[in-house]
Design a protein that fits this description.
With 147 residues, this protein is an alpha+beta fold. 16% of the residues lie in helices and 39% in strands.
Length: 147
Amino acid sequence: MKIILTIFFSFLMSSCPSNNNQETAAMISIYQGSLKGDGSEGFAKQNIVINSSAEWQDFLAKTTVDNQFKDAIDFSKKTVLVAIDSKRNTGGFSIEVSEIIKKEGKFQVTISSEGPKPTDMVTMSLTQPIHIVKINKTSKEIVFVTK
């Protein structure tokens, strides 16, 4: 009887649909830090997909992080994703592209952000957290999800 039940439940479990139609995409972090945060760069909280060198140069011209990028990015092979958080009155905040999943013909990009605890010592300066990553070139839809 135990053998019959074991076979029955094994068959039952193997016939259940699995949610394995997703895989994690590789990403390379190329900058994580802060913009000035005083509003001079003109960025609101947003996520940006950059697919060309012209878009990349236009983006860098608006930021204070342009001197961080010594190496050119080959946009025939790479796509750049930028996550920009809200302007903050103090330091201690961060934003991160934490995961990229290929799912149902799309890329789902998970953005997570953290702030300081009430007891943390933080700088009293205007900041705006930013994280920039590059992934393999894609023409698939990119959907950003906040965690």
